[in-house]
């Protein structure tokens, strides 16, 4: 018995999805133009599909689990379970209008024609905001719609905003923030649930490792109390005596997002020779 995972065949999520599996220690051959492949060292079958099709495959149980953008899942509105956020494929679904048009509030969209590939999400949003606009569904190249006179505004995915800019558009309203997520079919067997748990354990270890750094520093012994308070660590910091009397080496783990503040406090409390190293896997 094998767990079947569906990932995007070629597109913005493909590379990171493959990398995630490889970092979980799963080896496979993903030769070009393969539709499916089997892992050598984990009971896993990998299906390469268009991202739009993945929620349906999971709902039907053709694949057990899959990786898609939250945006796709919300648009397709399929009955699947969201298992874990994956931290890549970050983007937002936004409304944009030609940059010379004025925009004061969402009400300015009343009566406009909006081109999008996300009509389900957009119409829900407009209804919520009590805006009456016409939705024009197109499947690709949404960003050129205003310049060819097909629509007054667009609703599309944005990450840096450079595509909007080069098409003379400005972002005026963010509807949704999205990232890649792991989804699963609702009726997973006991055996497959156990396999999913095993995979999830590895994914979580990677995710927490990425959020944390290993930190080593030297400190005079009379400053250790203060330094330990700044560095909570996983349990508490490790303290090792240095050959130089009166000094110790302190090892701990810090979160990436608090990192610079912590370094400043450590320095102010007499820490020296601070080293920061990435963590590959972290099991808490
Ligand atoms: P497919 O051929 O599989 O249907 P696609 O063209 O629909 O591919 P991509 O453009 O590869 O899809 O985007 C896949 C997902 O990547 C999006 O659904 C979204 O979740 C995420 N993403 C991240 N950044 C962006 C971005 N700037 N533009 C579009 N999608 C983005
Ligand atoms: Zn797609």
Fold and architecture overview:
The structure is a single chain. The relative contact order is 0.14. The chain has 8 helices and 15 strands. The strands form 3 sheets. Strands 2-3-1-4-11-5 form a 6-stranded mixed beta sheet, sandwiched between helices. Strands 8-7-9-6-10 form a 5-stranded mixed beta sheet. The protein starts with a strand and ends in a 6-residue tail after the last strand. Zinc ion binds next to loops.
Using the 3D structure, state the CATH architecture of the largest domain: 3-Layer(aba) Sandwich
Radius of gyration: 24 Å
For this structure, the CATH topology of the largest domain is D-Maltodextrin-Binding Protein, domain 2
CATH class of the largest domain: Alpha Beta
Tally of DSSP helical segments: 8
Sum up the overall morphology in one term.
flat
The first-to-last residue Cα distance is: 30 Å
Strand percent estimate: 25-35%
What name goes with the CATH superfamily of the largest domain?
Periplasmic binding protein-like II
- Overall mean confidence score, pLDDT: 95
Q: What level of helicity do the residues show?
A: 25-40%
Poorly predicted parts: none
